Amino acid sequence: MISKIAYNLAVALLKRSPGNTYSIATIQFSLILLLNVLFTFVFSLILAYILGHTVDTLVLLIASYFLRQYSGGYHMSKSWKCITTTIILSNLIPYVSLSFYVNYLLCIISIILVYIYAPSRIEEDTVIPKEKYSLLKSKSALIIFFNFFLISSPLSVTFLLQALSLITFKRKVVI
Predict the structure, then answer these.
(1) If residue 144 lies in a helix (H) or strand (E), which one and from where to where?
(2) Domain range holding 74?
(3) What is the pTM of this model?
(4) Of 52, 53, 10, whose CA–CA distance to 29 is shortest?
(5) Which own/partner contact pairs does 92-96 have at CB distance under 8 Å and 24+ positions apart?
(6) C or N terminus of the chain, fewer CB within 10 Å?
(7) Per the UniProt record, which residue ranges are transmembrane (predicted)?
């Protein structure tokens, strides 16, 4: 569905700017990324408004978005799976309430995982040279570190889930 919307928008954009040198595929790809983020934020916030925790969900979405930009992580095979999972989790996680010590423990575990695995699965999606990967790792850890001051249970859970998504399990191929 998103792919089709992005394709139609790309065709319409190219018709309106005849001197443009970009291909439909390039514009479509960019629009797919943009629409994924837009749909995820809009539908998550609509549900959050209905459930009465809009600010919590917005903070969670923004924090996880920035952490994911620096750390990478698992990519679902279909965009609708990603959107649906994010909408559900971003509206369930605000209800989580953890003790002070559990929040700290989750942050520590998340930082350790980030230092071991980040950045993960970004090689094909970025132009950032590998020499800068340690900077991405540090920025990811710094984002999580701020939660030591906030002591937010939803952020602790979100950061742990994101950190777990960095782990790559290699499958054995049986012939």
Answers:
(1) helix 133-145
(2) 37-166
(3) 0.86
(4) 10
(5) 93/60, 93/154, 93/157, 93/158, 94/48, 94/53, 94/56, 94/57, 94/60, 94/154, 95/53, 96/153, 96/154, 96/157
(6) C
(7) 21-39, 45-67, 102-120, 141-169
